[in-house]
Automatic annotation (TrEMBL):
<dbReference type="InterPro" id="IPR035923">
    <property type="entry name" value="TT1751-like_sf"/>
</dbReference>
<dbReference type="InterPro" id="IPR005180">
    <property type="entry name" value="DUF302"/>
</dbReference>
<feature type="domain" description="DUF302">
    <location>
        <begin position="40"/>
        <end position="99"/>
    </location>
</feature>
<dbReference type="InterPro" id="IPR016796">
    <property type="entry name" value="UCP021774"/>
</dbReference>
<protein>
    <recommendedName>
        <fullName>DUF302 domain-containing protein</fullName>
    </recommendedName>
</protein>
<dbReference type="Pfam" id="PF03625">
    <property type="entry name" value="DUF302"/>
</dbReference>
Length: 131
């Protein structure tokens, strides 16, 4: 299992095809109190609308109601940074899972604290590292 991070994202390669990894992520996120608000099958959409074939790719919008409450309680302005975004991209026998980190955006574009964002980013990163 490889993992990467930079200022705006955390990535980890998880063994298994996209469907297997999606099922495991769905389960562990649900156990941790997260909800998958939306899921977009990008490969299916491109195939259907443009007859373009790409590697399997899902975009997920996830939210933990307690986290949303903390963000909104801090400032309604931070609500523009929720929900959290995960991208799952099958790469051979592995699936790369990327988490968009919002704390750098909050720091760059607002004068608000990043404490709540970092708290939940770290929670999701820890969940992904245990997979």
């Amino acid at each position: 299992m490889s993992q990467y991070s930079n200022m705006y994202k955390f990535e980890i390669d998880i063994q298994g095809n996209l469907e297997e990894v999606y099922g495991r992520i769905f389960s562990v996120l649900k156990q941790a109190g997260y909800i998958i608000l939306s899921y977009v099958d990008v490969a299916e959409i491109l195939q259907r609308t443009m007859q373009k074939k790409i590697d399997p790719l899902y975009i997920l919008n996830i939210c933990k109601p307690a986290a949303a409450n903390e963000f909104i309680s801090e400032s309604y302005e931070t609500s523009m940074f929720i929900p959290c975004k995960l991208v799952l991209h099958q790469m051979g026998e592995n699936t790369r899972v990327s988490l968009q980190l919002i704390s750098p955006q909050i720091e760059t574009f607002t004068d608000l604290s990043t404490d709540v964002a970092k708290k939940y980013e770290n929670e999701i990163v820890d969940i992904l590292k245990k997979m």
